[in-house]
Amino acid sequence: MTELDFALKKAKVLHDGKQNLLRIGIFDAPYINDFWITFYKTLLKIDPSLEIEVVRGNFTDLYNDFVNELYDLILTLDHTLLMSKFPFCYKRLFYREYAIIYSKDSEFGKMERLDFRDFDHKNVYVVDNERNIERVLSELASVGILNPKIQRVSNSLTVSTYLEAGNGFALIDKNIVQYNDSLRAFSGGGCFSGTYVTAVWRKESLPVQKIMAAYDKT
Fold it and tell me: For labeling, which of 12, 99, 129, 145 is most exposed (least CB within 10 Å)?
């Protein structure tokens, strides 16, 4: 249905002679306003006539739909998987720092003082993507959490649902605590690496190339 919807919209754009439609796909993190509003306003500043369509999806859907040309541009946390598919351009936009996230009502939230060892042998919720799971396990092992109980879930929103219920923990973007009073962050003095929100588009897409070149100058 998503593909049909995009096909109909693309046909209408061609019929109406509109050339300024920009279709953007965004990963499904619970909170995106820390970067999305800035990015959106900057695009409109570059070209006020832009008509922007936005769809959010999990990593797999976003990846597949971009490969199938349903989006002109995507915002993702991992662009490297696309390298084997076709030439593309990318630009790192915003840095995000990882931390262990848990609920104030969980067993961790009730401890007076936390240590990384408190999280070992406990449920850790991870979006079901092999590269992501490898990253999480590697990061946790680096601080001595060697045997976490991996709980695979389909998307980031489901991770948040479990955390808010006071169940387990996750290694995700620490800025989530700014928007959710029930969650807490623990990083042990910045022991974890971070990632970038990255814009990805095709090299042959000249309109997007032009927009992103102007983005660099804003």
Answer: 12
